[in-house]
Design goal:
Helix content: 40-55%
Radius of gyration: 17 Å
Oligomer: single chain
Number of helices: 3
Shape: elongated
Distance between the termini: 14 Å
Amino acid sequence: MGAFDHVRCELQYSRLAAGTILALGLASAAVAASLPLPAWFRLAGPAAVAVEAMLAWRRIRAVRFLAVRREGEVRLGLRDGRVLEGSVRPGSFVAPWLALVRWRPHGARVDRTVLLLPGMADAQALRKLRVILRWA
């Protein structure tokens, strides 16, 4: 096998991801609270944003490892011990500061996305992942 036939990223805690979710959540809550709408919405809007931010953080933290093959096969290990398999879908995005892996588990109807920021995995593994997603 060549150097870029497959990659496995062991994911870890990222202060950058936590800070990004917190900052965007606070900004969204502030916008929702300042809209010229009824008072109930100005209270419910920020509460809904807080719930969504917590769910986003839980989804990011749920992934233990991500393995991608050049052929487009994906294997995702969750912290609860489950392993999901599927395939890469159109719409994945790679940049030096961000990787979004859009994939669909076998037998599912809906695509899922895995967010990877610098520091969430080994730098070499992230580089290989970006190459596979961009060119394979």
